[in-house]
Structure formats: C-alpha cells, structure tokens
From TrEMBL:
Domain GH15-like as annotated: residue spans: 304-687
Protein's recorded name: Glucoamylase
GO molecular function: carbohydrate binding; glucan 1,4-alpha-glucosidase activity; glycosyltransferase activity
Higher taxonomy: Bacteria, Pseudomonadati, Acidobacteriota, Terriglobia, Terriglobales
SUPFAM superfamilies linked: Galactose mutarotase-like, Six-hairpin glycosidases
Keywords: Glycosidase, Hydrolase
InterPro entries on file: 6-hairpin_glycosidase_sf, 6hp_glycosidase-like_sf, Gal_mutarotase_sf_dom, GH-type_carb-bd, GH15-like, Glucodextranase_N
GO BP terms in the entry: carbohydrate metabolic process
Pfam families tied to this protein: Glucodextran_N, Glyco_hydro_15
Length: 818
C-alpha cells in the first residue's frame, strides 16, 4: 500500500495458507434483523445483523459492502464445536428503544453457557464494535475456547481479498485489503492466535470442524475468498470487545481500530445511544399504531440509517442482497442502490414524520443526480453512476411531487426547484403516456400506477410554474395531464375481462404499446405481454386482460379517482379474487398474477425464476385505500406490524403458502428477498400519518380538486388530442383541437380540403418541454386534417418530414356529447 508496509511487524506463523483461491464467494442471508449506524455523519460505517450474528458491513458509503459476515465459534477442544447461527437459540433486543444499538442473548441448545453480544458503531470513526459477555457452567467455561471468524468481501466482492496476521502495539490482530481499502480486525484483549485461510479449504471453520481445536495458524492468505479467525482467551477475558475497522489504506484502518479500542466500550455505547436519542420520534403517530409505537420508532430509524453520509440525501432501497446466500460477486448491486421511486417514498415518509430538513436533503441530492434531459437512471450508485438504464416515467414524476410537497410546506429553504421541476416535466411530456417500464420494472406500455404518478407530477409542475408566472408552461402541462386523464380508462382497462366471473370491465396491470408506438415489441402478437422470471417450461406470454395488479389504487391515493368510483370498486374485486393472500398475521397481496419474482414453489431461493409472493407494501396500499373509502383500515396497520421481524424489519415479500420448516419458510414470514425493504417502512409510516390525519398523506390537493369530482362539476373540459411524431394518432372528434408537439421548433403545413387551401403555422415554444401547434376543428366538422412538418436548419433549407399525415375528424358519438 505504501512504504509503511515494510515496517509493520507481520506475523508469519505457519506461513501461507493452502487451497487458494477458495470456494466461489457467496453473500449471506438477506433476512436482516437490524440495520445500524451511528447517528453522527463522521462515522462512515454501517452494519447489519441477521440470525443473531453480524452480517454485511458497509464502508465508506452505504452502497459498498465490505464483509460477508462475522460470528463466534466455540469448542471445548474435544466433544463439540458450536457455530452461533446453527448451534444457538437467541433473543434479540434493542439496548434502547430510541437507538439501533443491538443486544443478542444466545445460549447453546443444552443451556450450558450464554453469550450476550452488543453491536454498535464507534460514533466518530468507521469502526464496528461487538461487546461480548460469556456466562454459564464454570466447568464448561473452564474448557471453552472462543474464536471470532470474519469473512471479508472488500470493495463489494469475496474474490481477490488478501490478509495477514500482524502485531500492532504488542497486540495480535488481522489485516485484510483489496485495492485501496483496508480492514483491521482485533479485540481489546488481543487475539491469542490468528489465522488467514481460504474459504472451504484452509479457513478456521474447516480447522475446528475437523480437529475441534485451532491447529492451523496461517500467517497470510493472498488473492482469494478468505475467512480470518482470531482466538480470544476467555479464561482471562469473560468480557471482551471485538473491533472491525476500515480505512483507505492499512494505517488508517489500524490506527482507527486502536483508537477506538483505547476507550472503554461503555463510553462508546453511551455516546452512540445519546446521539440517537436526539432523534425525535413522531410521537403523535404512536396513538394510531397497534403496538404502542414500536414499529413506528424502528421504521423511522430504518429510513434514517439508509442515508449515506458522504453523499448527503442519498437513500438506498435496502442494505441487503436479496437471496444473498445464493448470490455471488456478479450481483454487484443487490438492493444497496438508489431507486428514485423508493427514495421519494422514503423522503415523503420522513416528511410525514416531520423531518422536513431530511426530505429537502433528498430532493437536493436528486436534483444533483438528474440527467440533462430531465430524467433519472432506473437505479444508480450513490455517486450517480447508473446501474440499470430502463426508462420508468414514475421515477421522473415522483421527484416533482416531492418538490411540490416541500414547496407547499415552505420547506425548500433557499433551494430553487423550478429548473429541476421544469426539466423533469419536459421529459414526461416527451415520453408519456407510454413507459418503457412500470413500477415493477418489467413491462412497457400504459400502466395505471405509472400514469397516476405522471398526471400528478405534471399537475404539481404546473402549480409550481404558475407560481413563477410561467402561465403558458403551466397551461401546457395541465393540458397534457388532462389529455392523459381523459384517455386513462380507455388505455388501461379491459371490457372483456376473464379473471372474475362477474366483472368484465376492470383495470389491467398494463396495456402493451401498439405497433408504431414507443417500446413496441414486434416479437409479440397484438395485445400480448411477456412476463419475466417464469419457471422454465411455464407459459410466459399472456393477453393483457389476463393480468392484473393493484396499481390502479394509486389513482385514488393521489386524487385522480374517487374511492367509490365503480371501476375502482369492481377492479378491487378482481384483485382480491386473484391476488389476495390470507396469513396468520393478516391479509397481503401479490404484485400481479403469474408473477415469477419470488421464492420457488418448493421454498428454494429465487434464481432468475420463481413464484412472486405477497408484499407487505401492498397491505399498506390497501390500508390507504380503505381509509379513503371510509372503511376500517386498522387491521392493515396491525398486519404490517405483525409481518415485521424480531428486530422490526419489514420484508419485501412474505411466504404465502403452507409452511416448509426445512426451508425456513413460514406463512406470513419473510420469504428470503430483501429485508428490510425501506419502501415498506415508508409505506407503514405514511399509513400511520394518514390515520392520524384522517386523510391520505400522499393526497395532492391540486390533483384532487381537478379530477376527483364528478365531471359536471370540473373546472375544465379537455378538447385537445395530442399528436407526437413518435406516437401518432389517427383521429379526433369534431370540435376538438389537434395539438402537434415536438422537442424542436417546427412549422406545420396543413389542409382541411385536400390541399385546395393550404395553411401554415409556426410552433410556439414552452421551453424545455418543446414546441406545439394547435389546429382547431369546428363543431360538426367532419373530414380530415392532412399535414406535414418542417424544421428550420440554420443556414440551410428546412428539413421536411417527407410525407403527409392524415388525421380524420369524426362526429362526436351521442354518448359522449356534453
């Protein structure tokens, strides 16, 4: 690493380990019981706990896991070897209700000895601490040996790690590295012995299982998948503290570990808890919970712990790798990435908890991450580097909605959101109504949930624009939203439903793009969608009318449709018929029928195919709907609370079939995907706030006032049909206006009478949203509009479209006349 390396006192012991490079790396269980970090921004380290043991540690940012796991092993040297996560029963506790400081009390299955562990971070350095107390039968303890076993996965992977034993200030410890990142592993009492080995061949676990004692003491293992082991002398140290420290280089990691261990554990613990006690929980929400506010406090802390400390305002989706025990280094991202959708849900929930400053940090971060065209990557590392690159229109709309909420709460401070909002709205009008991917990130087309976000985002953007006296832009955005809303039921429903015997007219999950529309899939017959992640041999192409999800409830959530709208009510009947799951803890719903993203039918891990399971998020969404409808919603609050783990973590999915104990699958409990899912905690907090207010917190007043009224009482009438070169239309009703839109300035040359009369109009600019031309038609007029387009090119002749386009003018059907 540098010249200091040669001056370290390396401990060669038995020399280099054998068996390089070790087994193929794997991550660990995604079912976390806790995610924690110090509240102070100076401590840039996060840890997770699962099955009573330490799991992934993240450093120096929350999207970079550096370890797989660390646990204690015990042996009497002759008759047994105990591994914590297999040989112990444990109880999980938080040391203080206000702080994510964890205490695990575990006993061997025969009850001969008890191990009490506490996990915290140094409040000021990137060091994770585990304090250990061992009590029990003295006859057993006098023979007991204790070993700390750590699997480094530095810089996000198990391959290519290196480690050596080292003496630091007279204490034996271990040092691992990969690239510029170093990890120091030691104890306040020092290790008696240490060893570096390759996983599956020469690691300490293999040694103990074979010999029941530590007979290997390898001084180094280079460039492989490693496990490091240190022995603690518990005959002299029934209480000790283990430290795992990180740094950009050996010296940083070593020095910070030794600095931390130089202070008593109790002092670190007090500082850790004191810092978190400064976080004011939203006490008023406890009254509408059914658990006294326990999950409410945990959920707020879960949201806060998932914010980065270098890139302030960046929130990841989950500090976990779904089905991690079956995933290797190739799964670089897991869920420790930023999804704009999830992040806005987090920021909105923190706003619901009264944390306006935190929500503003999130908005400012998103503004800094926005692409020049106004969009966002599908998901990205916290430094803004894209990971997946799909276009999801709701992920562009949600930041606009967050900006509007902060503006309405006078929470923007000195931050000018208008340029950010204007660019995002421009992207929406260039692409909507067809999205490349809906909120489940799989299908293109007309999605009720996506369009709910798009309509709401455009109305919020118009409201902000009007406040800046950009009246023409505001009118333009409102008209675009009105046009989408006027076609919403046409684009996203079926009148020939086959999923419920009594309901033919209902919302669908998505309508695929038609030929000639953006993102059309030529490989599929018209009206068909392909469902990802289906098991080999299973049908994966369905008619759109054969697939439903509950995304249309977003139309009620934001105020586009009323809860008692007959189409909403009937669509819910289909959802409950196809997707509702009853568990011992309450009702939940699957995302959509035929979903393949979830645990396999035999309980095995998802491996690219499986069976979609029930999502607690959707229990929250249903609770919000029932509140809107004036029905009892408390059972949904209770269900979410009961879906949480022993540490209060909410899973992405719960197992929704008969128990399979051999697989660890129990109905209503975590089904192996991400836990915690931050979005689920955000949904729960917003449901509590909605319950406390008696009104859905996410409801947008400007949207509700515009759309959630009977049509006769609306303040506007939409008589605009929008033509885009990338999404042409073929007809409009007489008396309506044909609006032609494009990104660039253009001229339209048109005729109503087959060129007997030629007319021309120059487009009007609305800034980043592009340009438009309106061609009116008269009441009772029939025939067609024929037009072509020309774009000016500086210093050259105009660039012409090169063809004529016909749009028929049809009489207004009697049923639609007003």
């Amino acid at each position: 690493m540098n010249d200091l390396t040669a001056s370290y006192r390396w401990l060669d012991d038995d020399g280099a380990a054998f068996g390089a490079p070790g087994l193929e790396p794997r991550w660990t269980s995604s079912e976390k019981d806790a995610v924690s970090t110090a509240y102070a921004a100076s401590s840039r380290v996060w840890f997770t706990v699962s099955h009573g043991t330490l799991n992934e540690i993240y450093y120096p940012t929350i999207d970079r896991p550096q370890t797989r796991d660390m646990e204690l092993l015990f042996s009497d040297g002759e008759t047994f070897v105990h591994e914590e996560k297999r040989s112990f029963e444990y109880d999980f506790h938080y040391i203080d209700a206000a702080a994510p400081a964890v205490r695990v009390v575990a006993s061997d299955l025969d009850g001969r000895y008890t191990v009490t562990k506490e996990f915290i971070c140094d409040p000021h350095h990137p060091v994770v601490l585990m304090n250990v107390k061992i009590t029990g039968d003295e006859d057993v303890l006098s023979r007991l040996k204790c070993y700390a076993l750590l699997a480094p996965h530095l810089n996000g992977g198990g391959a290519g790690n290196s480690a050596r034993s080292i003496d630091v200030a007279g204490q034996r410890c271990l040092l691992a590295w990969k690239g510029e990142t170093s990890l120091a592993f030691g104890a306040d009492c020092g290790f008696v012995r240490s060893s570096c080995g390759y996983v599956g061949t020469s690691d300490g676990y293999q040694n103990l299982v074979q010999d029941m004692r530590m007979s290997w003491q390898f001084g180094q293992a280079l460039d492989g998948n490693l496990a490091l082991m240190g022995e603690i002398d518990i005959s002299q140290n029934r209480e000790f503290t283990v430290a795992i420290s990180f740094g950009d280089g050996h010296h940083a990691a070593i020095a910070q570990m030794m600095q931390t261990l130089a202070s008593p554990y109790e002092l670190h613990q007090k500082r850790f808890v004191d810092q978190w006690q400064r976080v004011n929980p939203p006490i008023g929400l406890a009254a509408v919970s059914t658990d006294g506010g326990r999950l409410m406090r945990i959920s707020q802390n879960v949201l806060l712990t998932h914010e980065d400390k270098t890139y302030s305002g960046a929130f990841i989706a989950s500090a976990s790798v779904p089905w991690g025990a079956s995933k290797g280094d190739s799964d670089l991202g897991g869920y420790h990435l930023v999804w704009t959708r999830d992040m806005v849900q987090t920021a909105s929930a923190l706003l619901a908890c009264g944390r306006t400053d935190t929500a503003l940090r999130a908005l400012v971060y998103l503004a800094c991450t926005q692409k020049p065209d106004g969009s966002f990557a599908q998901n990205f590392w916290i430094d803004g580097t894209p990971y997946w690159t799909g276009i999801q229109l709701d992920e562009v709309a949600f930041p606009i909605i967050l900006a509007w909420r902060l503006w309405k709460q006078d929470g923007l401070g000195s931050f000018d959101v208008f340029p950010f909002v204007e660019r995002a709205a421009a992207f929406l009008v260039r692409y909507a109504p067809v999205t490349q991917q809906e909120r489940w990130e799989e299908a293109a087309g007309y999605s009720p949930s996506t369009l709910a976000a798009v309509i709401s985002g455009l109305i919020c953007a118009a409201d902000i624009a009007r406040s800046r006296e950009s009246v023409e832009l505001a009118n333009y955005l409102e008209t675009y939203a009105d046009w989408i809303e006027s076609h919403l039921d046409e684009w996203t429903t079926t009148t020939e439903g086959v999923l419920h015997p009594d309901v033919k007219y209902h919302y669908m999950r998505i309508r695929p793009p038609a030929k000639g529309e953006p993102f059309h899939d030529d490989s599929l017959p018209p009206g068909m969608i392909r469902i990802n992640n289906r098991e080999p041999g299973e049908r994966n192409v369905f008619e759109a009318r054969e697939v439903i999800d509950g995304g249309f409830l977003e139309l009620v959530r934001y105020g586009i449709r009323r809860a008692d709208d007959p189409l909403i009510v009937d669509s819910l009947k289909v959802v409950d018929h196809c997707l509702k799951i009853e568990t011992p803890f309450g009702d939940s719903w699957r995302r959509y029928n035929h979903d393949g993203y979830g645990q396999k039918k035999d309980g095995g891990p998802y491996d690219g195919s499986g069976q979609g399971r029930a999502w607690p998020i959707l229990t929250g969404e249903r609770g919000h709907y029932e509140l809107c409808a004036g029905n009892d919603f408390s059972k949904y609050v209770k269900a979410i609370e009961q879906f949480s783990s022993v540490g209060g973590m909410l899973p992405e999915q719960v197992w929704d079939y008969d128990d399979i104990p051999s697989r660890g699958m129990y109905r209503g409990r975590s089904a192996g995907s991400a836990q915690p899912l931050v979005w689920a905690h955000a949904e729960y907090l917003k449901l509590l706030r909605s319950a406390a207010d008696g009104r859905v917190f996410d409801r947008i007043q400007a949207v509700e006032d515009r759309y959630a009224v009977v049509k006769e009482k609306r303040s506007f009438t939409n008589h605009i049909e929008i033509f885009e070169p990338g999404r042409p239309i073929r007809s409009l009703y007489s008396g309506h206006t044909l609006r032609i839109v494009d990104r660039e300035h253009f001229r339209v040359v048109y005729t109503y009478d087959n060129w007997a009369t030629t007319l021309s109009l120059e487009s009007r600019s609305v800034g980043y949203s592009g340009s438009f031309v309106d061609i009116p038609t008269g009441a009772g007029q029939v025939g067609k509009i024929t037009f072509t387009l020309a774009w000016p090119v500086e210093g050259q002749q105009d660039r012409w479209l090169g063809r004529n386009i016909d749009v028929s003018i049809d009489p207004v059907p009697a049923s639609t006349k007003v």
